[in-house]
Amino acid sequence: MPNRAFFTKAPAESGGSKRGGVNEEPRVNDRIRISPIRLIDEEGEQLGIVATDEARALATERGLDLVEVAPGARPPVCRLMDFGKYKYEEARKAREAKKKQHVIHVKEVKLRPKIETHDIEFKMRHARRFLEEGDKVKFTLMFRGREVTHPDRGRTLLEQVKAELVDIAVVESDIRHEGRTMTMLMGPTRTH
């Protein structure tokens, strides 16, 4: 019979009393149980160490919330603030940061050893556009049948691609030959 303890969650994972989780909200108003606390008002001025009930009464009087901002400090640091407004501002900042981030995608451009010049020019225009948009480009050269006996043709083609895109890209993974495919990964040059 298998050991039952192996299949159960540890107490810390099951939502125990440990604080410090990544997205854990701070304790607010009645959820703050420890007393006394170090209190900071809405302007950032320290009001000193006060009893939690007294701080809660002051927050209610001013129409604000009592929010625990540093639970690890002794005594814990709490602040008077409009918690709803604070949460809204944090969510807005997170949305703005998400808008500004650029996710790098790896685009693939497939080639053949006997590709015509017009076709290679067409594919180079696409690769150049991908690199200018900040994405990485993986060039995959596929050999069919007896073409695999001439890997030098594929290597020459990928060297030509590398030379053509050297002004806007750097080689991140050089030419690799694996079975019937030859690959190369290029990324955009950092201009900032």
Kindly describe this structure:
The chain has 4 helices and 8 strands. The strands form 2 sheets. The protein has a 4-stranded mixed beta sheet. Strands 5-6-8-7 form a 4-stranded mixed beta sheet, with helices on one face. The chain is rod-shaped, with a radius of gyration of 30 Å. The protein has helices at 52-62, 83-100, 117-132, 151-164, and strands spanning 37-40, 46-50, 65-70, 77-81, 106-111, 136-142, 169-178, 181-188.
Key traits:
192 residues; alpha/beta; Ubiquitin-like (UB roll); 2 domains; four-stranded mixed beta sheet; 27% strand; disordered N terminus
Tell me the domain tally. Answer: 2
User: Quick one: biggest sheet?
Assistant: 4 strands, mixed
The CATH topology of the largest domain corresponds to Translation Initiation Factor IF3
Q: What is the average per-residue confidence, as pLDDT, rounded to a whole number?
A: 85
CATH level-4 homologous superfamily of the largest domain: Translation initiation factor 3 (IF-3), C-terminal domain
Return the CATH class of the largest domain.
Answer: Alpha Beta
- Taking all Cα atoms into account, the compactness measure Rg is 30 Å
Question: What's the helix and strand layout?
Answer:
Elements: E1 37-40, E2 46-50, H1 52-62, E3 65-70, E4 77-81, H2 83-100, E5 106-111, H3 117-132, E6 136-142, H4 151-164, E7 169-178, E8 181-188
Parallel strand pairs: 1-4, 5-6
Antiparallel strand pairs: 1-2, 3-4, 6-8, 7-8
